[in-house]
Design brief:
Largest sheet: 6 strands, mixed
Order of helices and strands: HHHEEHEHEHEEEHEEEEH
Strand content: 5-15%
Strand order of the largest sheet: 1-3-2-4-5-6
Length: about 375
Amino acid sequence: MAKVSIIQYSNVDLMMKLLKVAYSLRKKLSIVFLLLLIKLIALAQPQVENKKNASIKIPDYGNLYYWAAHPWKADPSDSVPAPLRKNYIKDSMVDVFFIHPTTYTNKDFIEWNASINDDDLNKKTDYSSILYQASAFNERCRVFSPRYRQAHINAFFIDDSIAKPYFDIAYADVKAAFEYYLSHFNNGRPIIIASHSQGTKHAARLLKEFFEGKELEKKLVCAYIVGMPIPKKYFTDIPVCKDSTETGCFVGWRTYKKGYTPDYIKKENFDAVVINPLTWSVNDDKISSSLNLGGVLKNFNKIVPHVVDAKINKNILWTSKPDVFGKIFFTKKNFHIGDINLFYMNIRENVSQRINAYWKKNNTSL
């Protein structure tokens, strides 16, 4: 994403001094200049140190409240689209640890990290990402997804040095949740790591810390880390998946309308991993929408077959405009929100393929 530098003020006292200066000069400054100064102060305000959330102890992940999805409670990740329910047979021999994307997006935010006890925000997470994304893994997996003090979406648009502490707070929670999961729930089971957007930022870090070059890597079925660029050289030991059945590897992509590449992506100075989820390969041929088994969009209980085609174009995935009613009025070119939803059924099928391949590879009977 594009980065925008804004001035950072460390405390409220400095902002108050600036306001006093603006007031004292109000007769000397032009109205336009005065408005610009006030705007600058307003922009600086959210940069106040996030002392409240930073001082909160990491959540007790023994409390099911701090899990957006967990096999020991009913939650939206258990949901199955209506057309699939007739033949749905739950199999939970593998776990998925799903890290949800940014849902902390309100414009009037005060703190850079979300409160983990914000019921409204938690409901927003549960009935968006957990319902529409995490549920893609529920046929063959137990689904675990922790709540965490996610960084506000604006953290992606400020300098890395300023944003880092906010992402570190978020990752600290994700790490603690994963450690608790390993100690109390895993019991040697194979693992899928799945994520989207901000969740992928944390998932990549988690994979390096807990899996790469470590014993746990043998338990990795696949990592579906989607919606953020993963440089091809980010991992030294975990390979990019070459096909639909390879295990111990990872896949990723970012979705945009065919022909559109945002300026900030044009400026990227690295090669990102891009897998085509219609073929699970790095082949850059255009793949027909006939191979798209179906997307799950606004209506969770409706599967839209052949919703988009897909073609890898350098660091991103290009697709056609979603083939839905009223598509003539659909003008968006960034399909980030649909990175998983547009390929929901292909992901669901591929999870099963990789799990079967994992058991076969490890000489374990199904």
